Protein backbone atom coordinates (compact mmCIF):
# COMPACT_ATOMS: atom_id res chain seq x y z
CA UNK A 1 0.00 0.00 0.00
CA UNK A 2 1.23 3.46 -0.76
CA UNK A 3 0.65 6.10 1.91
CA UNK A 4 -1.41 9.20 1.32
CA UNK A 5 0.63 12.37 1.52
CA UNK A 6 -0.71 15.27 3.60
CA UNK A 7 -3.53 17.16 1.97
CA UNK A 8 -7.07 18.39 2.45
CA UNK A 9 -8.72 15.25 1.10
CA UNK A 10 -7.20 11.87 0.17
CA UNK A 11 -8.12 9.81 -2.87
CA UNK A 12 -8.33 6.15 -1.88
CA UNK A 13 -8.27 3.12 -4.17
CA UNK A 14 -8.86 -0.58 -3.57
CA UNK A 15 -7.75 -2.61 -6.57
CA UNK A 16 -7.05 -6.23 -7.40
CA UNK A 17 -8.00 -9.10 -9.68
CA UNK A 18 -11.53 -10.32 -10.20
CA UNK A 19 -12.98 -12.09 -7.14
CA UNK A 20 -10.27 -10.76 -4.82
CA UNK A 21 -12.93 -9.35 -2.50
CA UNK A 22 -12.27 -5.69 -3.29
CA UNK A 23 -15.90 -4.64 -3.78
CA UNK A 24 -17.16 -5.97 -0.46
CA UNK A 25 -14.08 -4.64 1.35
CA UNK A 26 -14.48 -1.20 -0.23
CA UNK A 27 -18.12 -1.08 0.82
CA UNK A 28 -17.19 -2.08 4.38
CA UNK A 29 -14.46 0.56 4.39
CA UNK A 30 -16.86 3.26 3.19
CA UNK A 31 -19.31 2.34 5.94
CA UNK A 32 -16.60 2.60 8.59
CA UNK A 33 -15.38 5.93 7.32
CA UNK A 34 -18.88 7.38 7.14
CA UNK A 35 -19.64 6.15 10.67
CA UNK A 36 -16.44 7.87 11.84
CA UNK A 37 -17.51 11.17 10.31
CA UNK A 38 -15.36 10.87 7.17
CA UNK A 39 -17.77 11.25 4.22
CA UNK A 40 -16.83 8.75 1.51
CA UNK A 41 -18.33 7.80 -1.86
CA UNK A 42 -17.43 4.84 -4.07
CA UNK A 43 -16.24 5.22 -7.66
CA UNK A 44 -16.32 2.08 -9.83
CA UNK A 45 -13.28 1.54 -12.06
CA UNK A 46 -14.67 -1.09 -14.37
CA UNK A 47 -15.09 -1.33 -18.12
CA UNK A 48 -18.53 -2.95 -18.01
CA UNK A 49 -20.44 -1.73 -14.96
CA UNK A 50 -20.86 1.51 -16.93
CA UNK A 51 -23.48 -0.33 -19.01
CA UNK A 52 -27.10 -0.19 -17.93
CA UNK A 53 -28.69 -3.63 -17.68
CA UNK A 54 -25.40 -5.53 -17.44
CA UNK A 55 -25.91 -6.45 -13.82
CA UNK A 56 -25.64 -10.19 -13.22
CA UNK A 57 -22.51 -10.69 -15.28
CA UNK A 58 -20.66 -7.72 -13.76
CA UNK A 59 -21.52 -8.40 -10.10
CA UNK A 60 -22.79 -4.84 -9.93
CA UNK A 61 -23.59 -3.45 -6.44
CA UNK A 62 -27.17 -4.02 -5.36
CA UNK A 63 -29.75 -1.27 -5.11
CA UNK A 64 -29.57 -1.51 -1.31
CA UNK A 65 -25.78 -1.08 -1.31
CA UNK A 66 -26.01 1.87 -3.66
CA UNK A 67 -28.65 3.48 -1.44
CA UNK A 68 -26.47 3.02 1.63
CA UNK A 69 -23.25 4.44 0.11
CA UNK A 70 -23.30 6.69 -2.97
CA UNK A 71 -21.73 5.04 -6.02
CA UNK A 72 -20.36 6.62 -9.20
CA UNK A 73 -19.34 5.13 -12.52
CA UNK A 74 -22.33 2.79 -12.79
CA UNK A 75 -25.09 2.66 -15.42
CA UNK A 76 -23.70 5.53 -17.49
CA UNK A 77 -24.66 4.36 -20.98
CA UNK A 78 -26.62 1.84 -23.01
CA UNK A 79 -25.02 -1.51 -23.87
CA UNK A 80 -25.24 -0.57 -27.55
CA UNK A 81 -22.66 2.20 -27.01
CA UNK A 82 -18.97 1.66 -27.61
CA UNK A 83 -16.92 2.66 -24.59
CA UNK A 84 -13.33 3.79 -25.01
CA UNK A 85 -10.67 4.33 -22.37
CA UNK A 86 -10.56 8.03 -23.28
CA UNK A 87 -14.32 8.38 -22.72
CA UNK A 88 -14.07 6.52 -19.42
CA UNK A 89 -11.19 8.74 -18.35
CA UNK A 90 -13.13 11.97 -19.00
CA UNK A 91 -16.34 10.70 -17.43
CA UNK A 92 -14.97 9.14 -14.26
CA UNK A 93 -12.39 11.87 -13.64
CA UNK A 94 -15.28 14.32 -13.66
CA UNK A 95 -17.06 12.20 -11.04
CA UNK A 96 -13.94 12.09 -8.85
CA UNK A 97 -13.51 15.86 -9.16
CA UNK A 98 -17.14 16.39 -8.18
CA UNK A 99 -16.76 14.22 -5.08
CA UNK A 100 -13.62 16.09 -4.03
CA UNK A 101 -15.25 19.48 -4.69
CA UNK A 102 -17.97 18.59 -2.18
CA UNK A 103 -15.40 17.84 0.51
CA UNK A 104 -15.94 14.08 0.29
CA UNK A 105 -13.32 11.35 -0.09
CA UNK A 106 -13.57 9.30 -3.30
CA UNK A 107 -12.89 5.60 -2.85
CA UNK A 108 -12.03 4.03 -6.18
CA UNK A 109 -12.63 0.30 -6.53
CA UNK A 110 -11.99 -1.93 -9.51
CA UNK A 111 -9.92 -4.51 -11.31
CA UNK A 112 -9.11 -2.87 -14.61
CA UNK A 113 -5.51 -1.74 -14.35
CA UNK A 114 -5.75 0.28 -17.55
CA UNK A 115 -8.89 2.11 -16.49
CA UNK A 116 -7.48 2.70 -13.01
CA UNK A 117 -4.35 4.31 -14.41
CA UNK A 118 -6.38 6.30 -16.94
CA UNK A 119 -8.31 7.89 -14.08
CA UNK A 120 -5.52 8.52 -11.57
CA UNK A 121 -2.42 9.03 -13.72
CA UNK A 122 -1.50 11.65 -16.31
CA UNK A 123 -2.12 9.35 -19.25
CA UNK A 124 -3.12 10.80 -22.59
CA UNK A 125 -4.76 8.89 -25.41
CA UNK A 126 -3.90 10.27 -28.84
CA UNK A 127 -6.68 10.64 -31.42
CA UNK A 128 -7.09 8.47 -34.46
CA UNK A 129 -8.26 9.05 -38.02
CA UNK A 130 -9.12 5.87 -39.96
CA UNK A 131 -8.82 7.62 -43.32
CA UNK A 132 -5.40 9.04 -42.54
CA UNK A 133 -4.22 5.72 -41.18
CA UNK A 134 -5.43 3.91 -44.31
CA UNK A 135 -3.61 6.43 -46.49
CA UNK A 136 -0.40 5.95 -44.53
CA UNK A 137 -0.74 2.19 -44.75
CA UNK A 138 -1.08 2.43 -48.53
CA UNK A 139 1.91 4.75 -48.76
CA UNK A 140 4.21 2.47 -46.79
CA UNK A 141 2.62 -0.94 -47.52
CA UNK A 142 5.66 -2.36 -49.32
CA UNK A 143 8.27 -0.34 -47.44
CA UNK A 144 8.00 -1.01 -43.70
CA UNK A 145 11.71 -0.45 -43.06
CA UNK A 146 11.62 2.89 -44.90
CA UNK A 147 8.53 3.88 -42.92
CA UNK A 148 10.41 3.08 -39.73
CA UNK A 149 13.40 5.14 -40.89
CA UNK A 150 11.06 8.06 -41.61
CA UNK A 151 9.64 7.73 -38.09
CA UNK A 152 13.14 7.58 -36.62
CA UNK A 153 13.94 10.92 -38.22
CA UNK A 154 10.81 12.51 -36.70
CA UNK A 155 10.49 10.67 -33.38
CA UNK A 156 13.58 8.62 -32.55
CA UNK A 157 12.27 7.64 -29.10
CA UNK A 158 9.15 6.06 -30.60
CA UNK A 159 11.14 4.34 -33.34
CA UNK A 160 13.45 2.81 -30.76
CA UNK A 161 10.48 1.06 -29.14
CA UNK A 162 9.03 -0.26 -32.42
CA UNK A 163 10.28 -3.23 -34.43
CA UNK A 164 11.15 -1.98 -37.96
CA UNK A 165 9.10 -4.85 -39.38
CA UNK A 166 5.98 -3.85 -37.44
CA UNK A 167 4.32 -1.58 -39.98
CA UNK A 168 1.08 -1.31 -38.01
CA UNK A 169 2.77 0.29 -34.99
CA UNK A 170 4.99 2.47 -37.15
CA UNK A 171 1.97 3.79 -39.03
CA UNK A 172 0.16 4.47 -35.76
CA UNK A 173 3.08 6.62 -34.57
CA UNK A 174 3.16 8.50 -37.87
CA UNK A 175 -0.61 8.99 -37.72
CA UNK A 176 -0.38 10.61 -34.27
CA UNK A 177 2.46 12.83 -35.44
CA UNK A 178 0.41 14.11 -38.37
CA UNK A 179 -2.80 14.53 -36.37
CA UNK A 180 -1.38 16.27 -33.32
CA UNK A 181 2.00 17.63 -34.31
CA UNK A 182 3.34 15.88 -31.20
CA UNK A 183 5.72 12.98 -31.00
CA UNK A 184 4.02 9.67 -30.37
CA UNK A 185 6.62 8.99 -27.68
CA UNK A 186 5.37 12.05 -25.75
CA UNK A 187 2.10 10.25 -25.12
CA UNK A 188 3.95 7.19 -23.78
CA UNK A 189 6.16 8.92 -21.23
CA UNK A 190 3.52 8.94 -18.47
CA UNK A 191 3.07 5.18 -18.77
CA UNK A 192 6.47 4.66 -17.19
CA UNK A 193 6.09 7.19 -14.37
CA UNK A 194 3.18 5.82 -12.31
CA UNK A 195 2.80 9.38 -11.05
CA UNK A 196 -0.74 10.25 -10.01
CA UNK A 197 -2.54 13.49 -10.72
CA UNK A 198 -3.73 13.20 -7.09
CA UNK A 199 -0.86 13.77 -4.63
CA UNK A 200 -3.00 12.26 -1.87
CA UNK A 201 -3.61 8.95 -3.66
CA UNK A 202 -3.37 5.85 -1.45
CA UNK A 203 -3.61 2.44 -3.11
CA UNK A 204 -4.56 -0.81 -1.40
CA UNK A 205 -3.92 -3.89 -3.52
CA UNK A 206 -5.62 -7.21 -2.76
CA UNK A 207 -4.19 -10.45 -4.10
CA UNK A 208 -5.48 -13.66 -2.50
CA UNK A 209 -3.54 -16.90 -2.77
CA UNK A 210 -3.88 -18.58 -6.15
CA UNK A 211 -6.07 -21.46 -5.01
CA UNK A 212 -8.33 -19.18 -3.01
CA UNK A 213 -8.74 -16.90 -6.02
CA UNK A 214 -9.49 -19.82 -8.35
CA UNK A 215 -12.15 -21.11 -5.96
CA UNK A 216 -13.77 -17.68 -5.67
CA UNK A 217 -13.80 -17.32 -9.45
CA UNK A 218 -15.52 -20.67 -9.82
CA UNK A 219 -18.09 -19.75 -7.17
CA UNK A 220 -18.77 -16.46 -8.93
CA UNK A 221 -19.21 -18.19 -12.30
CA UNK A 222 -21.72 -20.63 -10.81
CA UNK A 223 -23.62 -17.75 -9.20
CA UNK A 224 -23.80 -15.79 -12.46
CA UNK A 225 -25.42 -18.74 -14.23
CA UNK A 226 -27.78 -19.47 -11.32
CA UNK A 227 -28.80 -15.81 -11.01
CA UNK A 228 -30.09 -15.58 -14.58
CA UNK A 229 -27.17 -14.56 -16.79
CA UNK A 230 -28.70 -16.24 -19.85
CA UNK A 231 -31.96 -14.34 -19.48
CA UNK A 232 -30.08 -11.07 -18.97
CA UNK A 233 -28.00 -11.58 -22.12
CA UNK A 234 -31.04 -12.61 -24.18
CA UNK A 235 -32.87 -9.47 -23.06
CA UNK A 236 -29.94 -7.19 -23.81
CA UNK A 237 -29.43 -8.66 -27.27
CA UNK A 238 -33.11 -8.19 -28.08
CA UNK A 239 -33.14 -4.53 -26.99
CA UNK A 240 -32.81 -1.71 -29.57
CA UNK A 241 -29.20 -1.53 -30.65
CA UNK A 242 -28.35 -4.82 -28.97
CA UNK A 243 -24.86 -5.16 -27.55
CA UNK A 244 -21.96 -3.12 -28.85
CA UNK A 245 -18.84 -4.97 -29.91
CA UNK A 246 -17.24 -3.94 -26.62
CA UNK A 247 -20.14 -5.07 -24.42
CA UNK A 248 -20.55 -8.33 -26.33
CA UNK A 249 -16.97 -9.32 -25.49
CA UNK A 250 -17.45 -9.01 -21.74
CA UNK A 251 -16.65 -12.13 -19.75
CA UNK A 252 -19.81 -14.13 -19.24
CA UNK A 253 -21.73 -12.28 -21.94
CA UNK A 254 -19.78 -13.75 -24.84
CA UNK A 255 -20.05 -17.24 -23.33
CA UNK A 256 -23.78 -16.86 -22.68
CA UNK A 257 -24.31 -15.63 -26.25
CA UNK A 258 -22.60 -18.76 -27.54
CA UNK A 259 -25.06 -20.89 -25.57
CA UNK A 260 -28.04 -18.87 -26.84
CA UNK A 261 -26.78 -19.27 -30.41
CA UNK A 262 -26.44 -23.04 -30.00
CA UNK A 263 -22.66 -22.89 -30.40
CA UNK A 264 -21.93 -24.10 -26.86
CA UNK A 265 -23.76 -26.32 -24.35
CA UNK A 266 -25.51 -24.83 -21.35
CA UNK A 267 -23.98 -27.35 -18.95
CA UNK A 268 -20.52 -26.02 -19.83
CA UNK A 269 -21.36 -22.34 -19.38
CA UNK A 270 -20.03 -21.91 -15.83
CA UNK A 271 -16.86 -23.80 -16.75
CA UNK A 272 -16.26 -21.56 -19.76
CA UNK A 273 -16.82 -18.40 -17.71
CA UNK A 274 -14.53 -19.58 -14.90
CA UNK A 275 -11.77 -20.54 -17.34
CA UNK A 276 -11.81 -17.18 -19.12
CA UNK A 277 -12.10 -15.28 -15.84
CA UNK A 278 -9.03 -17.04 -14.47
CA UNK A 279 -7.06 -16.14 -17.60
CA UNK A 280 -8.12 -12.52 -17.13
CA UNK A 281 -7.27 -12.58 -13.41
CA UNK A 282 -3.72 -13.68 -14.21
CA UNK A 283 -3.35 -10.73 -16.58
CA UNK A 284 -4.74 -8.41 -13.89
CA UNK A 285 -2.18 -9.66 -11.38
CA UNK A 286 0.64 -9.09 -13.86
CA UNK A 287 -0.60 -5.56 -14.57
CA UNK A 288 -0.90 -4.54 -10.92
CA UNK A 289 2.40 -6.17 -9.94
CA UNK A 290 4.11 -3.90 -12.47
CA UNK A 291 2.76 -0.86 -10.60
CA UNK A 292 5.08 0.07 -7.71
CA UNK A 293 2.09 1.39 -5.75
CA UNK A 294 0.47 -2.04 -5.69
CA UNK A 295 2.05 -4.10 -2.91
CA UNK A 296 -0.30 -6.84 -1.65
CA UNK A 297 -1.82 -6.00 1.71
CA UNK A 298 -3.89 -8.03 4.15
CA UNK A 299 -7.55 -6.96 3.97
CA UNK A 300 -7.78 -6.26 7.71
CA UNK A 301 -4.63 -4.13 7.58
CA UNK A 302 -6.04 -2.22 4.63
CA UNK A 303 -9.28 -1.56 6.50
CA UNK A 304 -7.42 -0.29 9.52
CA UNK A 305 -5.10 1.96 7.53
CA UNK A 306 -7.70 3.41 5.20
CA UNK A 307 -10.43 3.85 7.80
CA UNK A 308 -8.31 6.52 9.43
CA UNK A 309 -6.88 8.08 6.26
Helix and strand topology:
Elements: E1 11-15, H1 22-35, E2 40-45, H2 63-68, E3 71-72, H3 85-101, E4 105-110, H4 113-120, H5 130-140, H6 144-154, H7 156-161, H8 167-180, H9 184-188, E5 201-205, H10 210-226, H11 229-238, H12 245-248, H13 253-260, H14 269-289, H15 299-307
Parallel strand pairs: 1-4, 1-5, 2-3, 2-4
Helix pairs in contact: 1-15, 3-4, 5-8, 6-8, 10-14, 11-13
Describe this structure in words.
It is a single chain. With 309 residues, this protein is α/β, with parallel strands linked by helices. It is 52% helix and 8% strand. It contains 15 helices and 5 strands. It has a 5-stranded parallel sheet with strand order 3-2-4-1-5, with helices on both faces. Strand 2 (40-45), helix 2 and strand 3 (71-72) form a beta-alpha-beta unit. Helix 6 packs parallel to helix 8 (167-180). It is globular and about 60 Å long. The two termini are 12 Å apart. Mean pLDDT is 94; it is low at 2-6.
Would you summarize the structure shown here?
This protein has 15 helices and five strands. The chain has 309 residues and is of the alpha/beta class.
Question: Helicity, in percent?
Answer: 40-55%
Give a short account of the largest sheet: 5 strands, parallel
Using only CA atoms, what is the Rg?
A: 21 Å
Low-confidence stretches: 2-6
Biggest sheet: strand arrangement: 3-2-4-1-5
Report the sheet-strand fraction. Answer: 5-15%
SSE succession: EHEHEHEHHHHHHEHHHHHH
Mean pLDDT score, rounded?
Answer: 94
Amino acid sequence: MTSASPGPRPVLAVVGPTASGKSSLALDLARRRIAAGRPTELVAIDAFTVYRGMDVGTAKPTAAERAEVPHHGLDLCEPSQEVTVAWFQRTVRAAVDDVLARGVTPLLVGGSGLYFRAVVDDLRFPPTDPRLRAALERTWADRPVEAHAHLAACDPAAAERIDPANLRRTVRALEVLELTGERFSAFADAWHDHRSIHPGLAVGYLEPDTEVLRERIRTRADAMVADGLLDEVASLRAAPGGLSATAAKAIGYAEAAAVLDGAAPFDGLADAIAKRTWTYAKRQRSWFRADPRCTPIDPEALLADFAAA
